[in-house]
Structures are given as C-alpha cells and as structure tokens.
Amino acid sequence: QVQLVESGGGLVQAGGSLRLSCAASGGIFSFSSMGWYRQAPGMQRLLVATVNSMGQTHYLDSVKGRFTISRDNAKDTVYLQMNSLKPEDTAVYYCYTDGPAPDQYYWGRGTQVTVSS
User: Fold this and answer.
1) What are residue 110's phi and psi, to 5 degrees?
2) Residue 75 region by backbone torsions, left for phi larger than 0, else alpha for psi between -120 and 50, else beta
3) Backbone angles phi and psi of 57, in degrees to 5
4) Integer distance in angstroms from the first to the last C-alpha of the chain?
5) At residue 17, does pLDDT exceed 90?
6) Is residue 30 a contact partner of residue 73, using CB atoms and an 8 Å limit?
7) For 73-93, b where at least 16 C-beta lie within 10 A, e where not — what string?
8) Checking CA distances to 73, which of 28, 45, 53, 97 falls within 20 to 30 Å?
9) Distance CA 106, CA 97 (A)
10) What number is the average pLDDT over the span 9-33?
C-alpha cells in the first residue's frame, strides 16, 4: 500500500524559509513524477511544483525563483525548499505521486504552512 508522509510545515514570518519533505513507501517511485500541490481555505488545489523521473521540473508561476523541488530516489523522498515566503503562500501543502495507471495519483495527508506578515 502506497503511503506518502509529509513533514516540515509550520509557521514562519514573511521572507523566511521552510523545507518540506515527503517520504514515499509501499511502491517503486523512481519512475514516477512526484510533487506538491497546495490548497488555501476556500480555494481550489493548485499544482505548486513537480519533478518527473528524468529530473525535469515544473513550477507554478508565482513560486518560480523562490521554491525549488528536488528528489532523492534512493530515499523515495521529494523535497520542496521554499524561500522568500509570502503570506499568500499560506496553505495546506500536499505531496503526490502518480500511480501505474493513467490518471492515478496517490496523496499525502498534507502539512500546514502559515506565513505571517
């Protein structure tokens, strides 16, 4: 059974940094895309960053230059380094990985990131 466990969220002042981690287990992930979505209250879930099996990355425009996604296939872990945080980055951040079937995804339970002004 695939499980994704996020860590690293918390409360930080604007301009600060946080590093999110997501450890995957129960499957083989080196061939999968992994990444992060976020959801603020009353808003839809947005793709923040993703990295595929080739190491290619994609970012939400508003986080480009501030966030960096990386993965360690040996540890089945994906990271999100978040710098220069803004209050609008406040959200629950969810880790995901795609499954073997088309449009199949696995999700973590989420970690809260709160940026105070």
Assistant:
1) 100, 150
2) alpha
3) -120, 155
4) 40
5) yes
6) yes
7) eeebbbbbebeebeeebbbbb
8) 45
9) 5
10) 94
Write down the pLDDT at residue 100: 84
Quick one: pLDDT at residue 71? Answer: 95
pLDDT at 103: 87
Is 78 within 8 Å of 22 (Cβ atoms)? yes
Q: Are 71 and 77 in contact (CB under 8 A)?
A: yes
Instruction: Let me know how long the chain is.
Output: 117
What is the average pLDDT across 60-86?
97
- Token digits of residue 117: 């002004």
| CA angle centred on 109, ends 103 and 114, rounded to 5° | 115
